[in-house]
Amino acid sequence: MVVLEFTWSKVQKQRLVELNADESLLQYTFQDAKKRDRAFQSLDKELVLANKKHLIDLRNKELRPLLCQLESQLVQCLTQEGFVQVVTPHLLPRDMLERMTITSEHPLSNQVFWVDRNKCLRPMLAPNLYSLLRDLERIWEKPIKIFEIGTCFRKESQGANHLNEFTMLNLVEMGDLEGRQKQRLEELAHMVMESAGVTDYALEGCESEVYKETVDVVVKDLEIGSGAYGPHDLDNNWGIFDPWVGIGFGLERLVTVKRDYKNIRRSGRSISYLDGSRLNI
């Protein structure tokens, strides 16, 4: 005798994912469609109530989404460690990307949002910080320690871990680091992750299309941050000659792992979600 198993319909499963149902719930099977639909109605009601409760708590208690709270925590941590916050333009000239080796022939060029022939929206790379290091070296004593938290843009493949518009923390330190760049990079990674309240992570070596070799911060196979250090081949394009370390973190990905979201869209800028809670409920 053949026993039929019914799984969630495509629409039902999408709805459960939007309401952040646990992965185990998405694997349920049923003897018939009627039992499945009754189970869906019950589960949908339960998850809707949980989303509403979170939104009410946001209004009455937290008042700020976790993404904003996380940004404040990181600013406080870095400024206490002597890093200076900077604010640079979202619009970048083509020349800046070319100095990062992103020419029109480079594969990453297709992931850049070009505004016109000569300007683009800032991708994950931090050429602005390279430029600032060169100028600040004439004014400040070393070490020079700066950071920026701002919006970046990248044409990403569709998926649960990618956004076209996201928030990056980029920090860089330049000065007396000869021989201990990798150690300092790891120290900075630990500092940021501790400030973010994420302790279960790993540092892994990886290849990069721009920096060649990077040290990535990984949580459950998800890259949260990526760092590099110099002297590097790119330095000559910017007039940089001192040792440096730099690392960037995706804040939405940090929120995603802290809240154990199934989809990063819950963490980002949205008119469908507020602080991770679905508004269409």
Q: How would you summarize what this structure contains?
A:
This protein is an alpha+beta fold and 281 residues long. The chain is 35% helix and 22% strand.
Which short descriptors sum up this protein?
11 strands; 281 residues; two-stranded antiparallel ribbon; 22% strand
Verbal overview:
It is a single chain. By secondary structure, this protein is of the alpha+beta class. It contains 8 helices and 11 strands. Helix 4 (66-80) crosses helix 7. It has helices spanning 10-18, 23-26, 33-62, 66-80, 94-98, 127-136, 181-196, 251-259; strands spanning 84-85, 91-93, 119-121, 144-153, 165-174, 202-208, 212-219, 222-230, 244-250, 273-274, 277-278. 35% of the residues lie in helices and 22% in strands.
Give me the secondary-structure topology.
Layout: H1 10-18, H2 23-26, H3 33-62, H4 66-80, E1 84-85, E2 91-93, H5 94-98, E3 119-121, H6 127-136, E4 144-153, E5 165-174, H7 181-196, E6 202-208, E7 212-219, E8 222-230, E9 244-250, H8 251-259, E10 273-274, E11 277-278
Parallel strand pairs: 1-4
Antiparallel strand pairs: 2-3, 4-5, 5-9, 6-7, 7-8, 8-9, 10-11
